[in-house]
Amino acid sequence: MNTRAVILFLLFPLYALSQPYYGRLSIDSLKKMLLTAKDTQKINTLNLLARRYLYPVRTQNILTSAQNYAERYTDEALILAQNLNYNKGIGNALLNKGILLVSKEKENFTRPMASFEAAVPLLRQTDDEYAVAAGLENIAFCFHLLGENKRAILYHDSASNLFAEL
Prior knowledge:
78% of the residues lie in helices and 0% in strands. By secondary structure, it is mostly helical. The protein has a single domain, classed as Serine Threonine Protein Phosphatase 5, Tetratricopeptide repeat. The relative contact order is 0.12.
């Protein structure tokens, strides 16, 4: 794979995680929304907050403080979503958790892969196509890191096609 393709491969998930409107809100705006958010809105806001802190993961070393915030928001979102049986919230929290695990794991990508693979079917059920595409792209990224480039390309193509549709 040439250098330009690798760079695109690494940066692609950053754009995948941004969703219309809410995806553009700043951390401060999301924290203000969190003060009054309830139930599924709170879960969605927690997941978006976690994602805000996760953006630099693929382009630079994530700061420990940012990673701690992302973990805290992800864990809280996952617990709340599981309590409400809210699949979209569970799926997005698992997606965030997978990204966190990729940043922590240096050689073993089994745990992040499992998180992404658990997230995608839940997100498909809820028609959260942006997150599905992000999940597929992250699975591709894990396969790439594992040296399974043929499988990585299949997932990357699926994600690219879905993003093109969106």
